Amino acid sequence: MTIIVLAAGLSSRMGIGENKLLLPYKDKPIIHSVLETALSFSDRIIVVTGHERERMEEAISGFNAKPVYCPDYQKGQKISTICGIKAAGDDDFAIVPGDLPLITYSDYAGTYALLSSHSISRAVYSGIPGHPVMFRKEHRQRLLGFNGSLREYLSMYDTGKYNGSIGTVLDADTPSRYKAIVSGNGDLSILH
Q1: What is the domain count for the chain?
Q2: Taking a C-beta distance cutoff of 8 angstroms, is the pair 57, 8 a contact?
């Protein structure tokens, strides 16, 4: 299983002019927590970089993770995801945004277990779709040739759903979400 960690975005919703993945969480950058958990599940990690490529590659340099630069990262997450899928090669793969520092090993393991009965699986929390989203390798070429969104693609298949932790949906996408992550209060009102 190759885990594709998306770390190319502009962090524009954060609105503070900072790369959200480099903000502190438990005395280290958010991306470190995400990579530590991913590496506890798989030793094949791809980190898709784009915005502030050099800073991100420096931040992840101490990890067994392969950086893959997406030159068209400004076109959105779909383009970054495609870069990661291309780099994954002939392997089952998972897609995980780099701003989910509360995701757990169990979230990976539980979602992966569903690939034995589904060709796609994903974590959900209280009915809210989350990550990781995992695919058997036969979806690679189909996804690379698909013109719609990932959501549209997923709607075409029977996707196994693992009831995961709040870490599968609580991303550091906005100042209020980041504050909830750092404070550890698990305020679910920010998800709506």
Answers
A1: 1
A2: no
